[in-house]
Write a sequence for this structure.
């Protein structure tokens, strides 16, 4: 348990990190194996294949960082950045409903962003450079 978090805050941070990591982790299969849905999305954004592989690589790093309380805040910031891009893409060229998914991908992006923001906030004191200033 982190010395700066209460027991309940630590539990919330761990659960939020796990939820974000699971959602991000499941999308990696689609990105790295070139599934048609993923290719469609990145073609529509004009970023196929480099955008698909690049965002997948960043998300993989975010997943690995989210799984450790010591690095979870940095992983959360990476996850927030990629999910901000996903949310903006859904609000722009992709639309909320992508290929008849009923908005599922958009909802998962929002849930992941909220979970990552929760982790970043709760574990903010462990962030390099700014963390020590936040601890004052």
């Amino acid at each position: 348990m982190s010395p700066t978090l209460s027991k309940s805050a630590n539990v919330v941070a761990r659960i939020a990190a796990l939820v974000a990591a699971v959602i991000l982790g499941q999308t990696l299969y689609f990105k790295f194996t070139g599934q048609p849905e993923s290719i469609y999305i990145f073609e529509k954004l004009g970023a196929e294949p480099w955008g698909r592989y690049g965002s997948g690589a960043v998300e993989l790093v975010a997943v690995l960082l989210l799984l450790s309380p010591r690095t979870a805040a940095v992983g959360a910031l990476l996850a927030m950045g990629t999910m901000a891009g996903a949310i903006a893409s859904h609000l722009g060229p992709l639309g909320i409903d992508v290929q008849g998914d009923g908005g599922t991908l958009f909802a998962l992006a929002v849930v992941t962003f909220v979970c990552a923001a929760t982790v970043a906030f709760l574990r903010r004191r462990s962030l390099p450079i700014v963390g020590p200033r936040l601890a004052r």
Remarks:
- The chain has a mean pLDDT of 93.
- The first helix runs from residue 7 to 32.
- Residues 90 and 96 are 5 Å apart (CA to CA).
- DSSP finds six helices and no strands in the chain.
